[in-house]
Amino acid sequence: MKKVYCDDCLSRTQVYTWFTRFKNGREDLNDNPSAGRPETSDRAELVEKVREIIGIVANLTTRMLAEELNTHKNTIWRILTEDLEKRKVCARLVPQELNDDQKMARIFNEKRDFSHRPSSVLACSIAM
User: Fold this and answer.
1) Does residue 62 register a pLDDT over 60?
2) Cα(118)–Cα(78) distance, rounded to whole angstroms?
3) Phi, psi for 88 (deg, rounded to 5)
4) Beta strand 86-89 pairing with 92-95
5) Where are the domains of the chain?
6) Which of 15-19, 71-75, 112-116 is least confident?
7) For 92-104, what is each residue's pLDDT tens digit?
8) Comparing C-alpha atoms, which of 105, 91, 100 is closest to residue 80?
C-alpha cells in the first residue's frame, strides 16, 4: 500500500490496530468519548486558590505551588503572570503596578534604608 499511496496510508501497525478494534466490535472511526479535562483544570477556581495561597505566603516557588495544587508549574506561572499580573522581582512575584499606598510604603522603606547615604543615592534608588 505504501508503494501505491506513499505517505497517505496507514502504517502496517496502524492497520493491525484498527483491524483488532473492528474485530472486537468497533463500528466507526470517530474518537471514543472522553471525560474531558481533569477536575483541577477549572481555571477560575485555580486562580482563586493561587491568589489565596500567595496572599498568605508570597515567596513560594511555582514548583511549590504546583505541588500544593496538584497541577503543572507552567500552569501556575501563567496564572501568576497573566491572570494575577505578577512579575518576578528578586525571586518574589509582585504586582506590576503599585497603588499609592504601596508607593508610599516603598518610599518610606527606601528612606529608612538609605538614611545614612546622600540624597542623590536615594533619588536614584526609588523607582516608581
Assistant:
1) yes
2) 41
3) -85, 125
4) antiparallel
5) 98-128
6) 112-116
7) 566 667 788 887 8
8) 91
Give per-residue pLDDT as tens, 63-74: 999 998 888 999
Angstrom distance (rounded) from CA 56 to CA 54 = 5
Residue 118 CB contacts under 8 Å (≥ 6 apart), including other chains = none
Long-range Cβ contacts of 76-85 (<8 Å, 24+ apart): 76/50, 79/43, 79/46, 79/47, 79/50, 80/50, 80/54, 83/43, 83/47, 84/47, 84/50, 84/51, 84/54
Q: Is the pLDDT of residue 114 over 70?
A: no
Is residue 95 within 8 A of residue 102, CB to CB? The reply is yes
Main-chain phi, psi angles of 92, to 5 degrees:
-140, 135
Q: CB 107: neighbour CB atoms within 10 A?
A: 13
Return the C-alpha cell found at 54. 500567595
